[in-house]
């Protein structure tokens, strides 16, 4: 919409011209006025903005209260059983499959005790290995991540064996796993501890003969607020870019820090729609929770009814075997022939 | 609820909205990959401190369908190394590639054990842990025999 004001007389502006000028200004603003997101964020954080807008800048985000006792986690099933939660992306969900998978998951949980554990807990997994001397293969490690939904839920354990870092990824419902023990139940500040690969080895070395650490009954899951230093020269990922709470970054050059700020998208914490999209709807959660409660009841009943506990008493005499029937028929034949 | 959400990041949030891709880059081994020899043979000990790290120059891999698989090598595959100026066959004993199979481990370094043309390892001991599935395969039994720890 190219307009030139040179021909018009500034002192004689009619309504149409005023409207046009306003339109031009608005269009030009839209075209040229796009302020980059990181700049908006910068201005939002600036002291001038604070004075003008009042408390809006400092109200959220909440300050990290390290003095507060963060021991207890809500015993909400979404933290205890993250494998039962479905994919938050709706078009990737298949509800019938979920229901069937849940059934299989409960059946597996009847056979083997799958304990509650979190990323940062130290586990010992024993799986069947036909070629090992005692037919079992045991691996101890710290859980660095938990991925996938439903029956395919996997967790990865990391340990340093003979000076070499080893990671094994296990499927939680794999029938070849005979035992999962939680040697140390605790949580970390992040949900993914892949940065342990770039940390000094003492942060992920756990002896294979580690004794299980017993927590007092009724205690919540302790939170380990350890800050792991990243000392490796080559990093697998750019750890400074991801809001990782449990690491201690070395001093970085200014360009790297600026890039990290831009990448971080700090306004995302106020993105309510995104939070909505990542969470599971309450109705789905209620359905899953119902199934879990029913499973717990069934499990208790199963343990009572299982073969070791109940002696089978015959209500009626054992059915006659083939030999007995033949003998009977022979006898009857002999009697009739006579 | 909001405050709780901040203190306890949910697993779902991390899985779907990770800002870094957690699909590990393809750390498979291929033609020019540098490896670390974990033998106790003389050639291994010299080769590890030579001016050039031992490199893979050929991957022996049977493939029936795809040509692409011939270019990469993983755990348990036979490769040809260029070590200390000479060529030597070897078997991959530790790989950084993440294999999504049950009980198959992923290591922090790419380790290799030297073998001769018959498949017998040259050294008498392996100085690193070895994946447990080496016991199952017949062609890797000789390496499993001289191994110290299985992972």
UniProtKB/TrEMBL annotation, chain A:
The keyword Cytoplasm does not apply. GO terms for cellular component: mitochondrial large ribosomal subunit. The keyword Mitochondrion applies. It comes from the Eukaryota. GO terms for biological process: translation. Residues 313-338 are annotated as: Disordered. Keywords: Mitochondrion, Ribonucleoprotein, Ribosomal protein, Transit peptide. SUPFAM superfamilies: Translation proteins SH3-like domain (SSF50104). One of its GO terms (molecular function) is structural constituent of ribosome. Its main location: mitochondrion. Gene3D superfamilies: 2.30.30.790. Residues 327-338 have a biased composition (Polar residues). It is found in: Mitochondrion. It holds the Pfam family Ribosomal_L19. InterPro entries: Ribosomal_bL19 (IPR001857), Ribosomal_bL19_sf (IPR038657), Translation_prot_SH3-like_sf (IPR008991). PANTHER family: LARGE RIBOSOMAL SUBUNIT PROTEIN BL19M, RIBOSOMAL PROTEIN L19. Belongs to the bacterial ribosomal protein bL19 family. This is Large ribosomal subunit protein bL19m. It comes from Rotaria sordida.
Automatic annotation (TrEMBL), chain B:
The keyword Nucleotide-binding does not apply. Its main location: mitochondrion. One of its GO terms (biological process) is translation. It comes from the Eukaryota. GO terms for molecular function: structural constituent of ribosome. Keywords: Mitochondrion, Ribonucleoprotein, Ribosomal protein, Transit peptide. SMART domains: Ribosomal_L14. GO terms for cellular component: mitochondrion; ribonucleoprotein complex; ribosome. It is found in: Mitochondrion. Belongs to the universal ribosomal protein uL14 family. This is Large ribosomal subunit protein uL14m. It comes from Rotaria sordida.
């Amino acid at each position: 919409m190219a307009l030139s004001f040179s021909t018009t007389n500034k002192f004689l502006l009619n309504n149409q011209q005023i409207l046009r000028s306003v339109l031009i200004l608005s269009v030009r603003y839209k075209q040229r006025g796009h302020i980059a997101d990181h700049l908006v964020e910068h201005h939002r954080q600036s002291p001038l903005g604070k004075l003008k807008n009042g408390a809006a800048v400092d109200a959220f985000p909440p300050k990290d209260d390290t003095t507060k006792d963060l021991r207890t986690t809500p015993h909400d099933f979404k933290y205890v059983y993250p494998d039962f939660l479905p994919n938050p992306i709706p078009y990737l969900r298949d509800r019938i499959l979920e229901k069937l998978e849940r059934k299989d998951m409960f059946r597996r949980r009847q056979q083997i005790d799958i304990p509650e554990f979190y990323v940062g807990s130290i586990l010992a997994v024993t799986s069947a290995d036909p070629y090992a001397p005692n037919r079992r293969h045991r691996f101890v490690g710290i859980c660095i991540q938990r991925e996938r939904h439903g029956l395919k839920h996997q967790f990865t354990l990391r340990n340093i064996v003979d000076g070499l870092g080893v990671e094994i990824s296990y499927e939680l419902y794999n029938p070849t796993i005979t035992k999962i023990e939680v040697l140390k139940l605790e949580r970390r500040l992040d949900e993914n501890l892949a940065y342990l690969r770039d940390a000094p080895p003492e942060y992920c070395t756990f002896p294979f003969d580690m004794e299980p650490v017993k927590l007092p009954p009724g205690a919540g899951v302790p939170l380990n607020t350890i800050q792991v230093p990243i000392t490796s020269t080559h990093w697998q990922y750019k750890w400074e870019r991801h809001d990782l709470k449990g690491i201690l970054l070395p001093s970085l050059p200014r360009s790297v820090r600026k890039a990290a700020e831009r990448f971080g998208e700090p306004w995302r914490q106020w993105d309510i729609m995104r939070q909505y999209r990542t969470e599971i709807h309450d109705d789905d959660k209620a359905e899953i929770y119902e199934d879990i409660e029913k499973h717990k009841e069934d499990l208790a009943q199963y343990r009572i009814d299982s073969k070791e506990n109940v002696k089978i008493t015959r209500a009626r005499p054992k059915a006659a075997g083939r030999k007995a029937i033949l003998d009977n028929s022979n006898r009857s034949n002999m009697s009739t022939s006579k | 609820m909001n405050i709780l959400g901040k203190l306890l990041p949910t697993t779902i949030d991390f899985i779907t909205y990770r800002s870094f891709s957690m699909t590990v880059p393809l750390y498979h081994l291929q033609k020019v990959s540098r490896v670390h020899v974990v033998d106790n043979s003389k050639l291994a000990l010299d080769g590890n401190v030579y001016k050039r790290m031992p490199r893979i120059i050929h991957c022996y891999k049977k493939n029936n369908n795809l040509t692409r698989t011939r270019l990469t090598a993983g755990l348990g595959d036979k490769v040809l190394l260029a070590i200390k100026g000479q060529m030597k066959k070897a078997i991959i004993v530790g790989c950084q590639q993440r294999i999504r199979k049950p009980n198959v481990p992923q290591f922090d370094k790419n380790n290799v054990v030297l073998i001769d043309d018959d498949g017998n390892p040259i050294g008498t001991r392996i100085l690193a842990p070895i994946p447990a599935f080496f016991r199952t395969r017949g062609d890797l039994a000789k390496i499993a025999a001289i191994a110290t720890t299985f992972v």
